[in-house]
Amino acid sequence: MVTMLDVKNLKVMFHSKQAEMVAVDEVSFSVRAGETVALIGESGSGKSVTSQAIMGLLPDNGRIAGGEVSFLNQNLVKLSEKEMRRIRGMKISMIFQDATVSLNPTMKIGKQIVEGLHYHQLFPKKESKGEALRLLSIVGFENPSDIYHQYPGELSGGMKQRALIAMAISCEPQLVIADEPTTALDVTIQKQILDLMDDYKRRTETSILLITHDFGLVSEYADRVLVMYEGKIVEAADVFTLFRNPVHPYTKGLMNSIPRIEDPRVMLQTVRDMAVQEGTFEGRVFAPEVFSKDGVTYHAPSALIEVEKGHFVRFFTNKMEVSRT
Amino acid sequence: MNVGIWKQPQFITGLIILVSLLVASFVYPYFFELPKETKYLYENGNLVDVAPFPPSLVPPFGTDVFGRNLLALIINGAKYTLLIAFGIAMVRVMLGAVLAVIYHHYHDKLRPLFEDIIESTLFIPPAILGYVFLSPLAVKYSQENSGFAEMVATQSLVLILMGVPPLVSVFSKDMAKITDKEHIVSTLSLGAKNRYVYFKHVLPEMASRFWLVIAQQIIQVLILLSHLGVLYIFIGGAATIIDGDLLSAHEVYVSLTGEWAGLIGSNYEAIYHTPHIVLIPLGFFFLAIFSMNLVINGIQNNLKWSDRGRGW
Ligand SMILES: Nc1ncnc2c1ncn2[C@@H]1O[C@H](COP(=O)(O)OP(=O)(O)OP(=O)(O)O)[C@@H](O)[C@H]1O
Ligand SMILES: [Mg+2]
Prior knowledge:
Chain A is of the alpha/beta class. Chain A contains 13 helices and 16 strands.
């Protein structure tokens, strides 16, 4: 299978008034054609920052401090803003979490979903209405011509999310990054939206990078899973391997308490405590970048190790023992 | 801005007052002659009174110091006053918006310089700033006798430019708020150019805000004009007339357009003995500002409404 996206050693930093802070570090993964790769982790673990770095849309105070983002063997990090614009929407597009704020409230739905077609001049303006109606029916609207003339505020959350999907697929991109596309929706609508995306993916061989909090969704829709914790990937494997044999305590913590959306944050607090744990895998130590134990602070030169074929786990060190620094 | 604005009673009331003033002002010359100067009133060949004449003699407001019907002057001057204020406000806002786009876009490089300039101008009363710039101009034009249109254009330009920097500052802050919104990121993720984002998303979203600011600017300009009038700066310039008798001749400046500020200025000396000649044009300034405020309230109410209606 063709490798669509190949991220190698990505490092993203943010600078505030005084300090610079590392948000994402040593992140490496790939997405192949037609594959759904899930990126899962608690709030603040760096999932959105990773996707922004791929799109070249980091906030003004952020920068890519190292690594590569290759899309079909082209390193996006090196592209100019102008070249990057041709990638966005056209080759890689995004679906955002909250459709209420991701759609312009003052612009009609119909006009809005074909904006991408105008940017990339894929359609003459005259024909764009027909194309908008076609897109609206693809995402499951039965009355596209009514929806066309409505403002986002007149639609329900699930309908807005559909419109956002229509927008993201308008230029038939090869990779869609969906950043928690259903977190704002209730469970039944959530399933409809993800089924819609999954169905589209299967028909068009599009790749999906699915960012989520929720292991329940991962088991259902993903082919492979990346577990992210404090800006790093701590475990990566295909979905069957991971569910059969989760190794990292943080992954286990996430799995054992598959959130039912009520409040993922509460359960993630308890997961955090499990990340520092000793001797659960061949006597190795799992840990975040920095942790304290018995009054001593340790800095971890952690690394990803392949524990079985295609199954990578990050340990505190490559060695067995804990080193003092 | 949307249709809801026409359901705001304050907006409509304000607009009706202003439009009536304007219409009256434009229509007036077709039905009446402009009032002529009448300095002396004779009865049976005897001099009985000297201008200004009281309201009892020339209803409803009496005359100005040259014996012209004050109401007629005010009505006639309304169009110049209001349209000049509107024009200046309009251009200020348009210029401010365009410059704000540029400023916001090159924010990091321009900010240190620009912020200082604005900060320092904010503390100077506009009337003084206007006087400093416009009085040399007034002298220059009265000496060279240059064209009326050129004079108006130059004066307007000064009044426009004076008001632009604070607007750039305000607008660019608004823009920063809008460009931080997620739907802008969403547009960018589709491959939009910055130019497109400004023209299709940012500026339209600010449209109702622009109308509001134009209305506020009209008020500011009206106030500024009335202040400048007191300082003998009239839009369109002034003719200098020697008034009084041979023994006590003195110069009087007469506004060439007849706008209200000029009316105030050229009658200003009357404030001591017949204050109503100054106070009545001032009252009309007040009426215009009051109506403008009604319009503003209407717009603001409507903004709140539409915000809620669209579920922002
Ligand atoms: N503009 C920014 N300036 C400074 N720090 C930032 C900025 N954006 C993100 N960060 C930091 O980067 C880290 C990762 O944030 P990110 O938004 O990627 O988290 P996330 O995994 O997407 O979380 P969530 O599930 O809440 O969306 C956080 O610690 C956050 O504080
Ligand atoms: Mg996020």
